Amino acid sequence: MATIDLSEMKAAAGIGRYPRLGGRIYSAHPELVRWLLADSESSKDDPHVLNLSFACLTDDHTVTLGVTPEQVFGRHCAVLGTTGGGKSWTVARLLEEATQHNSKLILLDATGEFWRLDSECVSHVTIGEGPSLPETAERVAFPHSDMVESDLFALFRPNSQSQGPKLREAIRSLRLVQRRSGMADENGNLVKRKKPRTPIERALAEEADYVESPRAFFSVRHLAKQIREECVRPYDWNDDTKFGDANQQDEGYCLPLMMRIESITSSADYACVFRTDGMTTIADSIEAFLEDGSAKILRISLQNVPFGNNAREVVANGIGRVLLDKARDGNFREQPLVVFVDEAHQFLNRTIGDDFLRVELDAFGLVAKEGRK
Fold first, then answer.
1. Higher per-residue pLDDT: 55 or 117
2. Are residues 97 and 193 located together in one domain of the fold?
3. Where are the alpha helices (DSSP H) in 223-309?
4. CB 108 within 8 A of CB 302
5. What rounded mean pLDDT belongs to the chain?
6. Distance between CA atoms of 281 and 279, rounded to whole angstroms?
7. Using an 8 Å Cβ cutoff, are 269 and 307 in contact?
């Protein structure tokens, strides 16, 4: 509903004055509807304003409707509809219109259906092992070091009472030996059983910036064994300056977690996360895309990322977190970035876990809320 001031040719939202009973109602001319939807006031003030034309009136196909990029992408926008209702066509049309201008667009393709996007300005990357289209798509990885603690907890699903603290301490210990290789044993683990506490605690304090960093690298293939090394008593019975002996009860509680970690990290389905040596990371691909002036669309295919253990949701949420961190660092102020998420209901407002440990996958929710800022 809108009110048009014909003397000044301005439109205002809402009804300024209600009509009288029995008043006549006229059908608006299609051109008037087009003028109204195209935000005539801004167009009048700025004749060079951009318009994205991606629709027409159902009653008159000769009248195209255009809106400004700010109206569509200024806040989060959802494309809704039933199966076969044209949601994918609408997304493709928005991509086509936006690329006609100097835009940067990232498409998160959950099912791989947009592989037919064929242009010199389109780059295709795919995550995971398996067939992918087009054949020129670059295979990239999303390494575990690009995940934050909550993402790893969502994958490994420790319970919060006993397994969660041990997993957290094991990650900290492996980050420490990554910086202080001399503290590791021949297997690459930090042994605490019957060892003096002071050298380890001092090293943790000195390397706190790296150890506490949410994306610091550590060797995940040593994670299960390191959890076992963490299952020791905090103090020795005879010398409180040393760690105690092995705690069989804690080790028994953590045994299911260790087996789960070994199974997940050795699975071929998760090679894109846990076996990424020499592979280009998705963060590097995004950075290269942003620096390439000729590239306009980066399509990231998730069709080969498995659903098991919520891997697809966690990987998509991690990509959203990478983009959110870049936005918070101010990387998109000079040239804004538009992100399209296909099958967004799989990734938005998702909470995974159980009654003891629940992890909210809120990266794209935060992007939607903070994106305009």
1. 117
2. no
3. 223-230, 248-266, 271-274, 282-291
4. yes
5. 85
6. 6
7. no
Spatial separation of the C-alpha atoms in residues 161 and 167, rounded to whole Å: 11
For residue 371, the tally of other CB atoms under 10 A from its CB is 20
Q: What is the tally of structural domains in the chain?
A: 3
pLDDT at position 371 is 67
- Report the pLDDT averaged over residues 209-226: 91
Rounded Cα gap, residues 2 and 65, in angstroms? 17
Q: Print the domain residue range for 245.
A: 149-269
| Whether 108 contacts 339, CB under 8 Å | yes
Q: Are residues 12 and 154 both part of a single domain? A: no
Question: Which domain-ending residue is among 269, 285, 310?
Answer: 269
CB 136 within 8 A of CB 123: no
Query: Sign of the C-alpha dihedral, residues 142, 143, 145, 147?
Result: positive
Sign of CA dihedral 275, 277, 278, 282: positive
Higher-pLDDT residue of 195, 350: 195
**Residue-wise DSSP of 139-202:** EEB--GGGS-HHHHHHHH---TTTHHHHHHHHHHHHHHHHH-GGGS-TTS----TT-BHHHHHH
How many residues does this entry show for the chain? 373
Domain membership of residue 77 (yes or no) is: no
| Helix/strand number for the chain, H first, E second | 14, 11
Q: Write the pLDDT tens digit of every residue in 327-359.
A: 888 888 888 888 999 988 887 777 877 666 777
DSSP state at residue 4: E
The rounded percent of the chain whose pLDDT value lies above 90 is 31
Which residue type occupies 265? T
Asked if 67 contacts 34 with a C-beta cutoff of 8 angstroms, the reply is no
Does 39 lie in the same domain as 137? no
pLDDT at 45: 54
Domain-terminating residue out of 201, 236, 269: 269
Other C-beta atoms lying within 10 Å of the C-beta of residue 133: 15
**Bridge partners of 338?**
105
54 and 105, same domain (yes or no): no
The CA distance from 235 to 245, in Å, is 8
In this prediction, residues 296-321 reach a mean pLDDT of 87
pTM of the model: 0.80
